[in-house]
């Protein structure tokens, strides 16, 4: 998505099996049946507090996890039938193509380029690209990043977008995960981390980081989170969209936002309309 030029201060992946054929063929992800099957594989992030996080006890938490769990329930799968699969940004399209997962809801922004490779249900959250900096940082505008070290994760377009359209002299650093970028900020080896504000808010709200960082509030772009499925799987897209609409209408969406982002005072946008992409 194109960034807005700014001068002053955006489930995790769901997976469920297709209806078993009369011949009893096996799904390509090891699932069986469309509802009440043995397992549903869901691709998520493991390192994003507030969205998709693997806890020390092996459980999973976050807004994407809650969305994915709700949708899976509507598709006939109980929480204990969900198999969570770590899906890094750089591998999301390949994971769907290989059949490692059936669906991905992992802060997966809907873009024209990605729609050439996968289909999307949703969107289910409108976020905005922003910057996370240390609490005493003097970075207030996008252009302040010129000459600064700007971090994002491999496979994300966020940092490159900033360099292309706002701060051409920014020094890009792409690392394997957001936790690595956060560590770089703490040690002053990096000056800023850029990605969606929902992701940044999740990190800033963690006990071990409280008071150390701040969001600049620049709203550099609109990021429409969708649930990715294998290209051509229209039936699955339609079923997920129905589940998402129900989640909004019965109040479960609002509760998930409050539960996961409330501690960070995250100013979320209202639930987006299915199929309505905000440019």
Automatic annotation (TrEMBL):
Protein name, entry field: Glutamate ABC transporter substrate-binding protein
Keyword field contains Zinc-finger: no
Domain Solute-binding protein family 3/N-terminal: 39-264
Organism of this sequence: Streptomyces violaceus (Streptomyces venezuelae)
SUPFAM superfamilies, A to Z: Periplasmic binding protein-like II
Recorded family membership: Belongs to the bacterial solute-binding protein 3 family.
UniProt keyword annotations, A-Z: Signal, Transport
InterPro entries, per the entry: Bact_solute-bind_prot3, SBP_3_CS, Solute-binding_3/MltF_N
Signal peptide feature range: 1-22
Pfam family, one: SBP_bac_3
Xref: Gene3D superfamilies: Periplasmic binding protein-like II
């Amino acid at each position: 998505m194109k960034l807005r030029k700014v001068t002053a201060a955006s489930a995790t992946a769901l997976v469920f099996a297709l209806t078993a054929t009369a011949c009893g063929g096996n799904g390509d992800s090891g699932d069986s049946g469309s509802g009440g099957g043995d397992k549903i594989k869901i691709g998520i992030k493991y390192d994003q507090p507030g969205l998709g996080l693997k806890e020390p006890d092996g459980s999973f938490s976050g807004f994407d996890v809650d969305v994915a769990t709700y949708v899976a329930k509507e598709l006939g799968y109980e929480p204990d039938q969900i198999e969570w699969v770590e899906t890094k940004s750089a591998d999301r399209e390949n994971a769907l193509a290989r059949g490692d997962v059936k669906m991905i809801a992992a802060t997966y922004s809907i873009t024209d380029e990605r729609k050439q490779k996968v289909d999307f249900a949703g969107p289910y959250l409108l976020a905005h690209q922003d910057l996370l900096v240390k609490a005493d940082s003097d970075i207030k505008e996008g252009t302040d990043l010129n000459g600064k070290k700007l971090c994002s994760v491999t496979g994300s377009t966020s940092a490159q977008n900033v360099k292309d359209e706002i701060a051409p002299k920014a020094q890009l650093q792409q690392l394997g995960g957001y936790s690595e970028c956060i560590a770089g900020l703490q040690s002053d080896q990096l000056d800023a981390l850029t990605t969606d504000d929902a992701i940044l808010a999740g990190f800033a709200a963690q006990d071990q980081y409280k008071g150390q960082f701040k969001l600049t509030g620049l709203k550099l772009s609109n990021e429409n989170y969708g649930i990715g499925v294998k290209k051509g799987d229209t039936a699955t897209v339609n079923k997920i969209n129905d589940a998402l609409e129900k989640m909004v209408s019965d109040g479960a969406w609002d509760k998930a936002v409050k539960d996961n982002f409330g501690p960070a005072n995250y100013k979320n946008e209202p639930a987006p309309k299915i199929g309505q992409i905000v440019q």
